[in-house]
Design goal:
The protein is of the alpha/beta class. Helices cover 31% and strands 22% of the residues. The protein has a single domain, classed as Aldolase class I (TIM Barrel), CATH 3.20.20. It has an eight-stranded mixed beta sheet. A three-stranded antiparallel beta sheet has the order 8-7-10, with no helix packed on it. The longest helix is centred in the N-terminal third of the chain and has 17 residues. The protein binds iron/sulfur cluster.
């Protein structure tokens, strides 16, 4: 399959489905992936197949590269809607994440004061107060919750064994509404082989759009009270085989239920 690894620390801009003309900030090395999840649908591929051999960019390197790009775009009168922390893994794992956010806001204010700063995160570092404080300073604090079933998350998002979604929801409540929840809905199956014997092959249904999954997820939204919800589905080839896009009608029906609770909801098909 084809995987995408992004240049580091700056890439794009790209025309984002959800965010507009988006300049990417990748706090991971360019030659691999570093993430606290290992999602079976990750466009960067599985963690184990993309171990890095180089270090993350430093805070100073990120600021210098970002300033150079912003200055050039400003001089050439090129548009920019958003600066997006994304790329080869989880941006909040960077040890200088709070300082990098401060640098980015300062440079945004200097060159493109109308542009938004967005962070795409899997919420695994929201237990850290310094990370939460930094995320409170960005315009779009976008945090992933694919479901509220720990079994499903450990099967599909594959965090560390001690991950508990109840704790993450508690931490997301601390944003007091300054948070956008993004959720991947998909269908299909995934086959896991535990050993070389055929008897040890297990096929899992990975669809997460039935009421069994959506009802408790809606209850979690009511606790978190996000400013917005973004739902989406598979857009590219995935490292695991057998995963399927959720149908547009399925996504639309979920979006209607979110809106009925009073939360704006965007859908990317
Ligand atoms: S959280 Fe994002 S970067 Fe990390 S494995 Fe999942 S899809 Fe990939």
């Amino acid at each position: 399959m084809s995987t995408i690894l992004y240049p580091s620390p700056i890439f794009g801009p790209i025309q984002s489905r959800r965010l507009g003309v988006s300049l990417g900030i990748n706090l991971m090395p360019a030659d691999g992936k570093l993430c606290s999840f290992d999602c079976v649908y990750c466009e960067c591929g599985f963690n184990g197949e993309h171990t890095t051999r180089s270090r993350r960019p430093s805070r100073e390197e990120v600021a210098a590269a970002l300033e150079k790009t912003l200055r050039e775009r400003h001089e050439q009168h090129l548009p920019l809607d958003v600066l997006t922390f994304a790329g080869n893994g989880e941006p909040t794992l960077h040890p200088d994440f709070p300082g990098i956010i401060d640098d980015t806001i300062r440079l945004r204010d200097q060159y493109f004061p109308e542009a938004k700063v967005s962070v795409l995160s899997n919420a695994t570092m929201t237990h850290k107060e310094s990370v939460r404080d930094a995320l409170m300073r960005v315009d779009n604090n976008i945090q992933k919750i694919d479901t509220v079933s720990n079994d499903y998350i450990h099967l599909v998002d594959r965090p560390a064994p001690n991950y508990r979604v109840e704790k993450v929801i508690e931490d997301l409540c601390k944003f007091e509404g300054h948070v956008i929840i993004q959720t991947m809905f998909m269908g299909g199956t995934m086959t896991l082989q535990w050993s070389s014997g055929d008897d040890d092959v297990v096929v899992y249904d990975v669809s997460n759009y039935s009421d069994e999954f959506v009802n408790p997820w809606l209850e979690a939204l009511q606790k978190i009270k996000p400013q917005q919800v973004m739902i989406y589905t598979i857009d590219r080839e995935t490292p695991a085989e057998g995963l399927l896009k959720a149908e547009p009608a399925v996504l639309d029906a979920i979006a209607e239920r979110v809106k009925a609770l009073g939360f704006p909801c965007s859908v990317s098909y």
